[in-house]
Amino acid sequence: MKRLFFAALTVSSLVLPCAAQRKPVLPQIDLPHPYYFREMYLPQLTSGPSSVAWSPDSKELVYSMAGSLWRQKLDSKTTLQLTDGPGYDYQPDWSPDGKSVVYVSYQKDAMELWLLDLATGKTEQLTNGGTVNVEPRWSPDGKRIAYVSTSYNKRFHVFRADVRNGKLENVVRLTGETKSDLPRYYYSAYDMEISPVWTRDGQEILFISNKGHIHGTGGFWRMKAEPGAEAREIHYEETNWKARPDFSPDGSRMVYSSYLGRQWHQLWVMPANGGDAFPISYSDWDDTNVRWSPDGKQLAFVSNEEWNTQIVVKEFEGGSEVPLVIEQRQYIQPRTGISISITDEHGKQQTTRISVTDLNGRFYAPSDACIHADDGYERSSDPFEAHYFYSKQARIDVPAGPLVIDVTKGFENSHLHQLITSKLGNSEKFTLVLKRLDWGRGPGPQWVSGDLHVHMNYGGTYRSDRVNLLEKAEGEGVRIVHNLVVNKEQRFPDIQSAIFGEVIKYFSDSATEVLGQEYHTSYWGHRGILRLKSHLLLPGYAGYPNTAAASLYPMNADVYDMAHAQGALVGAVHPFDTVPDPFSNPPQRITDELPIDVALGKLDYMEIVGFSDHRATAAVWYKLLNLGFRIPAGAGTDATTNYAAPIRGQVGMDRVYVQVPAGPVNLDAWMDSLQKGRAFATNGPLIEFTLGSQRVGDELKFDGPQAAVPFTAKLRSIVPVDHLELVCNGRVVQSFLLDGPKDSADAKGAVPIKESGWCVLRASSDKAEYPVLDNYAYATTSPIYVTIGGKPPWSPEDAKYFSAWIDRVLDITSHYSDWNSPEEKESVLEKLREAKQIFEAMR
């Protein structure tokens, strides 16, 4: 029994290291795509205000900012801190009697409701189920609250509770649990209900629900505030998490946020029982989280006009707007100022990614910094996910005591981790010096990094522009940023900035922006289009049910032809979280077009490292390489740079290094080398590989099998890796780190090569390694190709695999009904059959 126990323990440690470590933030919510609701719906840590509520007399505001609640009079420039940890506090609502504030506190891996007594400062926890509870709103009589909770089946539903003596009583769920048959891709099959607000008579609630709709978060619904009451939809438009309606004090109208017909959320007003709405703001930024003052004269809302967030107060009649000015902050506990400066080894200041936390894990940032958060973390070692900002010199108000400073600048400089102690009194200055790794300093060709998949704006908390985008790139040490314009529901947030006649933008001589597009067809798989030269490819997607773009035409193969006509490169982005299994029983639903694209000679690269599982993606890539297809390794983060909680990470978390001649970087040469495969993809480790004196992307030709072909392998990494391996034709032929994890290695030797194929060098860790904000570190070179005796690679099992894959696509696609014409359907099916024949001929 003891032997069996230790055997099981050993196996578990080998196969479960990633799962045992890093997990997503708030995994207790059961929705298919957490990267949307987390940013667009749940409160996030920002240095500026994130939500606001009025005092009953309409003379003060309470709001969340920097993880605390604050109180400020409209005629004052001084704000008073009301809460100060231990977690991060959000979404306050002031009680009608003026005595207390209900709010959300994020701590202990949950979001719970709390109650603050304004007279004493005492706080009481109201919910304690370890779930997510958000958007609390007082009833007009101040006796009850409505709120959203995931306590029932981990989904968003509206609840009601009585508040008595600092406790919740008579908690009931108002909205039902309904599973829809609609084909939702980004949203759960189960209907959800969010953003409740009481009618002014306290008899009903208004909320947002996607009941009966495929896309978005749905329309506006009203119901009696009683369990089981029938709800009625009073208005529909495709809301996107941020509508958050509020009634006028007289109950006749409602104000809310909408992007209808625009690229940004604006303020709209419509009758309380539904009807035709009209906008009351017309800006090129987001106005959200709006609240009507109790006297009916003003609106307070959160704006990102100044890139970060701020509160704006607007007269409803007349429309004048005044930002809430914050010149002085009165803290509960004394604060002191510290200044942090980052330089390189020569004393030149550097923009970097910076994190400052106390020993309890609470984060601090400059008052004007855009704060960003990781999308996962290890619960056993960290109380919160990592937060960070970008700066070269930062001043921060912090409590006295020990602080931890982490500084990162890409993958070519060592990560700095330093403990300091702040003291009350005069401002202290700390200068930290980056140390460059032994990488890329010699003569000859240079490695130039690029992120192939970045979105400047994508419906997030902040508003970004090219300067913001490239400051982040500079802070991450990324030289070339491919800014892919893409739709978010019915809009293209960056379409107005897509000026393709000016492809390259420079900033500080260190970063370059290249405009492109992500073609967003989820049926066939998303595709990145690099360096479009004249125009976007619209509508930008196909296969959207219940729209005029419901047809599966154009398929991606057609889109590639349109892109190539502009001289663009096209690649498969965030390909696979698991390896597709076309032989499964019951049959697996497979519609991804990848093998068809490859067989027809359309694909220019693959994101081997990206917003997907790198090992699963590489496994499919290897099968294609085994059949003689030459596909360079690319990398792209899918970074959403205006998010407070980016989908997977900021610019350059997943990047490709491309080898180009020494000297000033020429974009044409960089793109050409990428297409030729003179590159490696990575989220941290830096690797180099030669085989038979050839570099990656090259081909070795031999008349016959070789007993020993010399190779070199090099590793430099900001984190230790567990594996450094030479892989040929999908098999590990040599491992180098046999004595444990390392962050540096140099190896040389020789390997036998007996058949045509390919070889790559790859490096990886078995678990998450901070500051790499991913489930594990991973890097791979593009292949060096080998041809023996003029024969192509041969792998009948892999040909059978892709033939079966296309059979699944053919079966599902042939039964699809929403085509614009029979000719469209036949055009698509013909390409699928053509690709299948190519793989059949390889068996």
Overall pLDDT metric: 93
Secondary structure tally, helices: 10
Quaternary structure annotation: single chain
Please summarize the sheet with the most strands: 17 strands, mixed
**Given the helix and strand composition, which structural class is it?**
mainly beta
Q: Low-confidence segments, ≥5 residues, pLDDT <50? A: 1-20, 503-508
The strand count comes to 57
| Gyration radius over CA | 28 Å
Strand content: 35-45%
Give the helix level as a range of percent. Answer: 10-25%
Principal-axes shape call: globular
Distance between the termini: 47 Å
Write up what this structure looks like.
By secondary structure, the chain is mainly β. 13% of the residues lie in helices and 38% in strands. The strands form 11 sheets. The protein has a 17-stranded mixed sheet that branches. Strands 28, 29, 30, 32, 34 and 35 form a 6-stranded antiparallel sheet that branches. Strands 2-3-4-5-26 form a 5-stranded mixed sheet, with no helix packed on it. Helix 9 runs antiparallel to helix 10 (822-840).
